[in-house]
């Protein structure tokens, strides 16, 4: 199996491992470079995990001069894994079903997590799937940490998937039911596997459990107890054999072994009940917590199955740049698995955030897009050359036309000036004509007005005021005479559709009196009201008047009816 060169970055709860892997001439996986940095796995510092990863990556990249695209592995305590069964449908229709199942099984809003799935097994009409999700802020923090160090993330895998791939690569001859226990700092992945399928259960029992037990017994802080634990278990401690610290470490390890045995027993029973699988024949231990001296023997005695340590380098060629790999092998299972591709033709889980995936896809297409743009530019070269020639010829013709147009533009300017002078003269003529017409119309109008007053008899006018307003709205014209003073509205220049000025509307405010001879010393009679009403009605019939407005009467004086109204002059017969 030929494997392309891969930069794997295993982000553990308490360590960062970077490895550069490729295939040798025979197709075997080769570990060319290896760098591992440890940091405090204290659970109370979980919020600072991304920052600690960033610091470790920066130091590793600077020291080892690593660059390129990277595949990230996330620890079990940051992964939510669910195994579900769905109807077996075409792959094109599978996404909607899985989306629905994800909403039901992931206890967070889907926009707050990064999630994906892969097929674990096909069982007749059913599909067994693994759903994996991680908080978006955790995945983005790890990707940003690598990005700040100059590395580009191409995929993000749960460590359980990577460990499973590592085992199948290194132990191809092992068949049947088995368990892999990847014991980390914050959590332990229990991976149940057989030839075709696997199942993962993550439990919060790991190396930190031992440290926390020591801290609880000695009443010391976590970091100090972590140091004591490592020194005692590695045989590097100078503490007396009877010291409380050594006793606390021994008690914590014993308690951890008992709890791990119970979790394994419970998990095996539940797994067999749910899946119908056979009793696991072997248990393989890996991870930083698997280095406990009596762990394998104790579990083998209690579980009554074969227990051995998983060797992640069993089928791997170790290069000169990774000479420290054998000593660090318990921490390398996930790192090695990150470089091993998924089974051909099968979709694999990738928790890479969508935004990063889109940028990555664009960067992959970028060389092709640049080449396509260059080819397109080459195809346009003849057109550009021809267009430049046509443009040069057009510019020459334009210059010749401009030379001919300049004299014509001068003539056009004089024509416009003469047209403006002609329009001004026409306006003056129209004004004079209107004035002449108005002079004759006033004589005719007053004569017509006098005739209508004579027909009514015993009536005369006290006031006649002229109100000129451009707006035809009568409400804008104020009253005058007896009942109000004239308030002419400001004139606004208006034009007709043909451009000629609109003649202003003229209103005449008349006020006068009518004598009631039949009732000289009493209130005015109905007959007098009728005479005035007849007078107003006769005005409407006049050729000069278009309407009568604001009719007002005052009969408070004995024998006299005072009246006040406004005559609207017909614009067709202006005054």
Percent of sequence in beta strands: 25-35%
Query: Shape from CA axes?
Result: elongated
Describe the largest sheet. Answer: 6 strands, mixed
The topology string of helices and strands comes to EEEHEEHEEHEHEEEHHHEHEEHHEEHEE
Could you say what the CATH architecture of the largest domain is? 2-Layer Sandwich
What spatial order of strands do you see in the largest sheet? 8-4-1-2-3-14
Work out the number of β strands. Answer: 18
In DSSP terms (H or I, runs of 4 or more residues), the helix count works out at: 11
In short:
The chain is of the alpha/beta class and 575 residues long. It is built from eleven helices and 18 strands. The termini are far apart.
